[in-house]
Amino acid sequence: MSDHLTRAFSPATLGQLPLKNRILKAATYEGKTPEGIPGELLLNFHKGIVQGGTAMTTIGYCTTEADGRINDQMMWMHEGIRDQLTHMNRELKNAAPGVAISGQMTHCGNFSKNRKLQRLKRPLGPSRQFNSLGAASGMPFAGAMTVRDIDYLVQTYADAARLMKETGFDAVEIHFSHGYGLSQFISPRTNRRTDEYGGSLTNRMRLPLRALEAVRKAVGGDFPILGKIGLTDGIKDGLHIDEAIEVAAMLDTAGIDALICSGGTSSFNPMLYFRGDTLEKGLIEVEKNPIMKLGLKLIGSRMFRFYPYEELYFLDDAKRVRDRVNCQMVYIGGCTDVPSIEKVMAEGFDFIQLGRPLIKDPDFVKHAMADRNYKNGCIHCNRCASLIEAPGGIYCPLNLEAEAS
Ligand SMILES: Cc1cc2nc3c(=O)[nH]c(=O)nc-3n(C[C@H](O)[C@H](O)[C@H](O)COP(=O)(O)O)c2cc1C
């Protein structure tokens, strides 16, 4: 085994958290929290992941408040699920001693079809805007947050982080990308505010930095905080790489422990972060709302623009961020083969997050450790991602088809 692969599969520390190797599970909202409750479905999915050799799994899309949910089945961090979270984290650690668990902290901002709003009358983002996701559910417009709303949002990050630490998470990952709440503030396309939260990058970063500060205060100095940022929105007037590097530098200076660099937005061009086959066809199949189904048929091809798959598709831009910051770097995006793991390590990244490869094969890390020529088998058909709202949530259809044949 090369020195780089040996490094990938050897113990490391994330901030001050010891990990058994450098391969981490990426946040992938799995659609396994019916009524927002983290029960057996979610536990069993992540049990498979942690038993497969991954050093740290990430529970995706843990929203910081009820109204931060994209749909009404998502989990939000609140006292009502304290016992379930504690149980899940305990069981995962029992299933794979030495494994760590991270939770991705998110808020949908202006992009939501959740009609069961608790505090708000409609979704809120930085500026008044068309809510493409909510249009078919009777919420075509999102409003603009007041400064009071912003203060409240910051508090939800603090409260959620505290709960997550208390219930056995070992790290948190703040979602600053993919067109959700905090990323809507960072992007000049969605943030058209004229107060101290809009305009210059310093102003657009004010809320994201306040959220980071609040989370740090809640969890303390030695608890790892990761941040997932966008390298580019990939849309006209959106965030571009030069500004993204400055976003990274600002988060680094503010004390983030590690950065993960993705790109694209769920609202305008999700295929930028997935690459490969379009999600459109699968989403149309699963969609229950007839208006949404029709909308997807009519404008799906414009929204799900085609970006061909290539291994390590974010590597070049992520290296530019790596060169600018002092914090640890986690590579994400199209790392499907063992030689790709080797390459990312050779480029000096500290960790690698895998999404689809671990959905395809939860035992990938064990297999890769044993055999450099092991093939993961994920073909980036993205059918797993189309299933996030299917009954029971995501799975790899290729595996099911292989079992059936
Ligand atoms: C089913 C599915 C759900 C996802 N949900 C999330 C999510 O909740 N949060 C997030 O930041 N990224 C999400 N992603 C994107 C992944 O974290 C990752 O950025 C992307 O899949 C590229 O990594 P990969 O090539 O290793 O799969 C999701 C991806 C998939 C396949």
Task: Outline the fold blueprint.
Blueprint (H helix, E strand, L loop, with lengths): L2 H6 L3 E3 L2 E3 L3 E3 L14 H12 L4 E8 L18 H14 L4 E7 L17 E2 L3 E2 L10 E4 L2 H20 L4 E6 L4 H6 L14 H4 L1 H14 L5 E6 L10 H13 L4 E5 L8 H4 L5 H7 L3 H14 L11 H8 L5 E5 L5 H9 L4 E4 L1 H5 L3 H7 L12 H4 L10 H8 L1
Parallel strand pairs: 3-13, 4-5, 5-9, 6-8, 9-10, 10-11, 11-12, 12-13
Antiparallel strand pairs: 1-2, 7-8
Bound molecules: flavin mononucleotide.
Summarize the model shown:
Helix content is 38%, strand content 14%.
Q: Could you walk me through the main structural features you see in this protein, from its secondary elements to its overall organization?
A:
The mean pLDDT is 96. The protein is an alpha/beta fold. The protein has helices at residues 3-8, 40-51, 82-95, 147-166, 181-186, 201-204, 206-219, 241-253, 271-274, 280-286, 290-303, 315-322, 338-346, 356-360, 364-370, 383-386, 397-404, and strands at residues 12-14, 17-19, 23-25, 56-63, 100-106, 124-125, 129-130, 141-144, 171-176, 225-230, 258-262, 328-332, 351-354. The protein has a single domain, classed as TIM Barrel, CATH 3.20.20.70. Strand 1 (12-14) and strand 2 form a beta hairpin.
The backbone outline, from C-alpha atoms, is globular
Q: Kindly give the count of domains.
A: 1
Class based on secondary structure composition and strand pairing:
alpha/beta
Could you give the order of strands across the largest sheet?
3-13-12-11-10-9-5-4
Biggest beta-sheet profile: 8 strands, parallel
What is the helix fraction of residues, given as a range?
25-40%
Sequence stretches where pLDDT stays below 50 over 5 or more residues: none
Mean pLDDT: 96
Distance between the termini: 35 Å
CATH top level label: Alpha Beta
Annotated CATH architecture = Alpha-Beta Barrel
What order do the helices and strands follow?
Answer: HEEEHEHEEEEHEHHHEHEHHHHEHEHHHH
Question: Could you please say which CATH topology applies here?
Answer: TIM Barrel
Give the CATH superfamily.
Aldolase class I
Proportion of residues in β-strands: 5-15%
